[in-house]
Design brief:
Layout (H helix, E strand, L loop, with lengths): L6 H17 L5 H16 L12 H13 L1 H4 L8 H37 L4 E6 L2 E7 H26 L1 E2 L15 H7 L4 E2 L3 H6 L2 H27 L7 E2 L18 H24 L14 H24 L1 E2 L1 H9 L5 H12 L3 H16 L12 H10 L6 H10 L2 H6 L9 H45 L6
Parallel strand pairs: 3-4
Antiparallel strand pairs: 1-2, 5-6
Helix pairs in contact: 1-2, 1-5, 1-7, 1-18, 2-3, 5-6, 5-11, 5-18, 6-9, 6-18, 9-10, 9-11, 10-11, 13-14, 14-15, 15-16
Length: 477
């Protein structure tokens, strides 16, 4: 039953193989047509394929062909190939399709993040390090950070695609075949860019699975971090965002609860995908060269990881689409924050030539004084005497009124507007970034579209080639 996921790909692979056998005159046209017609019947009714008692889907498929069209014809389907090269070919074709689907999903999620960024250029909020308020930013800046991270995931998957899209078919059990099989022909028919030349490597290597699941782990870690932020920021203590009711559940006992269950499950599913990678690597680490039955057990964690990532991308996309951003709560938290402390220190550096380390200690002392005041919620609550006392204690020769003016002139809004460095949360910089990211995303979209088109064309070409053979006059091998 595990192999049900590759039945379609096994039939596709078999069609390419019998086309090649016909081309090298080891199958007649009539034999090819009989085999292909039965394969199409199985494809239309996969539930009727008898699998009981067979080792895998390849054996079940061959047995069905023999049972329906006889051993004289059906018994030729494995000519020049082994289940060893057959299964890894199926897995690579499926992995290729899975990768393309995940890139499309990533593309959709990034597109959404860019749209939400544009809508939240004015959503001023504190940015955090160590879960402590650090600097002032906005929700757009946060969303753009994950947009950039997820675009690197697409880069990694594109690089991997080239290593996946190589054909092992025709490598046989381990050492090839005495028959004049045409590996380049089947590779071209199946849409592969190249061959895995060495027959030992072709049948037994699974390094692309390690790489694929590693990339899936990286995607899940990013989704898990997004989920963690959403969980924290939707809590009553923060209230920065509100998750839609459809992505939450209530408590069986406490009627006020709104639990972000899907996001919590993404965190746990991330651990499962990481565990799957560990399982695959542990299975492979001690295998001798050539095919071993252990390789069969890499399929389940591989396909499970693909399914988890696909569903998680869908969930995160829907959560972000439907969430409410509480801009007023965010800006209130920013206005009562000490996150503009660095800005004040940098003004002292720029305009008053105070060494940064001294400015750092001065503003740190002022923050400490403000926090110890009963009503102290920001540096603006400090009195003239408070500031004068700190300046005297630190022996800094600066007019108290000048420092008060710098503090009074600071604000979260000015903090963002005055940011000069590339990649900072200034609105104009972010508008430019969103534009550039959209152009890059369009490039990615076109690239994955070309890959999908090539793959789909190869599948269509197999059908076209079979139809062309059917219309030719009958000839014996």
């Amino acid at each position: 039953d595990i192999d049900d996921k590759i039945l379609y790909y096994d039939i596709l692979c078999t069609k390419a193989h019998v086309i090649m056998l016909h081309d090298i005159r080891l199958l007649s046209k009539d034999e090819l047509v009989e085999i292909v017609n039965e394969l199409d019947r199985i494809l239309r009714h996969p539930d009727k394929l008898a699998k009981e008692g067979f080792e895998d889907i390849h054996e079940a498929l061959e047995a069905q062909l023999i049972r329906k069209i006889g051993v004289d014809v059906g018994g030729k389907v494995q000519t020049g190939r082994s289940r060893n090269d057959q299964v890894i070919t199926d897995i690579r074709i499926k992995a290729r399709d899975d990768l393309i689907d995940i890139v499309f999903q990533l593309n959709n999620l990034i597109r959404l993040l860019l749209q939400k960024s544009e809508e939240n250029l004015d959503s001023i909020m504190p940015l955090y390090t160590h879960l402590q308020q650090a600097q002032i930013g906005n929700f757009a800046h946060y969303l753009l950070a994950y947009s950039e991270s997820l675009m690197r995931e697409i880069d990694r998957l594109f690089s991997l695609y080239n290593r996946i899209n190589q054909s092992p078919l025709g490598a046989g059990p381990i050492g090839g075949s005495l028959l004049p099989i045409d590996r380049k022909m089947t590779a071209k028919l199946l849409g592969f860019d190249n061959l895995i030349s060495n027959t030992i490597d072709a049948t037994s290597s699974r390094d692309f699975i390690i790489e694929f699941v590693s990339d899936l782990c990286s995607i899940m870690i990013t989704l898990s971090r997004i989920s963690e932020d959403m969980i924290i920021w939707s809590s009553q203590e923060f209230g920065f965002i509100e998750i839609h009711d459809k992505h939450a559940s209530t408590s069986s006992a406490m009627p006020q609860k709104k639990n972000p269950d899907p996001l919590e499950l993404i965190r746990s599913k991330t651990a499962i995908v990481i565990g799957n990678l560990t399982s695959i690597m542990t299975i492979l680490k001690s295998l001798p060269s050539g095919y071993s039955r252990d390789l069969q057990d890499t399929k389940v964690p591989f396909w499970n990881s693909v399914d988890i990532v696909s569903s998680s991308l869908e969930i995160v996309n829907d959560v972000i689409t439907s969430l409410t951003v509480n801009k007023d709560v965010m800006v209130k938290a920013s206005n009562t924050s000490y996150a503009i402390a660095l800005d004040i220190a940098e003004v002292l550096v720029m305009n008053h030539k105070i060494p940064f380390r001294i400015a750092h200690k001065l503003i740190g002392a002022l923050v400490n004084t403000a926090m110890n005041k009963k009503d102290g919620k920001s540096l603006k609550y400090l009195s003239s005497s408070d500031i004068s006392e700190v300046l005297e204690k630190m022996k800094i020769k600066m007019p108290t009124g000048k420092l008060i003016q710098i503090i009074e002139n600071s604000s979260p809004q000015k903090s963002i507007a005055n940011c000069r460095s590339e990649g900072s949360p200034g609105s104009q910089k972010q508008i430019k970034t969103i534009k550039n990211y959209r152009l890059l995303l369009e490039k990615y979209f076109n690239e994955v579209g070309r890959k999908k088109k090539n793959v789909d064309r190869s599948k269509e070409n197999i059908t076209t080639t079979i139809n062309r053979i059917k219309t030719k006059s009958s000839s014996q091998p």
